[in-house]
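Shape matters. Shown next:

___
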Amino acid sequence: MLRFTENMETTTSRTQGYILVTMLLCAIHKTATTDTFDTAEEKDVSLHQIDNFYDSVMEAATELSVPHHDRHGPYFDVSASKNVTALVGKTAQLNCRVHNLGNKTVSWIRHRDIHLLTTGRFTYTSDLRFQSVHNPQTEDWTLQIRYPQKRDSGVYECQVSTTPPIGHSMYLSIVEPITTIIGGPDLYVNKGSTVNLTCIVRHLPEPPPGMQWTHNNVEINYDSPRGGVSVITEKGEITTSYLLIQRAKSPDSGKYTCLPSNANPFTVTVHVLNGEYPAAMQQGGKLKVADPCTVLLLALLVINLAR
């Protein structure tokens, strides 16, 4: 009787700790998603760090919630049940692997509104985008979300109907890829200088398989007789592609489009100048405006002449 009581107290303590950790991490992530960052890059880095922290702590909490001496009952394989990042509009899947399930049932719960989504292979929500997928030959229970939107981001829990229930939580991030070219929509360069177009692609679950550049809607040929045109692409969590055009000429003016294979394109207009408009020149991907003092002196001169 004493051992039973001790086991009950240990299980209760672990369960309470699990719940407190979940609540704490949810609060941290909610704080991080508010507009308290100076730049989008700072927010991306912060959310990424918190998601990794969330994943690590939840893995540890799940390990605590199922004692090693009790492995004859159901327990989660946290290495196969991780956070997921998916694209807006493309089916997202959260996987939950449960060993030794026996005759217990797996359910999926959305933490945002404590909503029961599925139990077993049955759906318990009017939102038919949600579906539980299970292959009897595996131990995986997958929550499938079709046509996901940003509002679907949040914590989802895979729960097993033990007594008391055990659960493993994952964070789903639904993102929309963003493509930009630094300094757009108009870039001005002097004839004979080097054009450097920098295309940045953010919020992709994986780097784009291909990065294409076009000039006036025609794919750029890097081996053309013109020569001096090259591209450098660095793939990662943020993919950057540099289009370099040496010895700029008037025919190089026009619309340049960066086309990632799995994100939206972005277009800028390049103006190759023959010495005109020297105050608007490309420098380091940004527009260089003439010295403010010079502008002020010119304005005063115009006003004086107008009198």
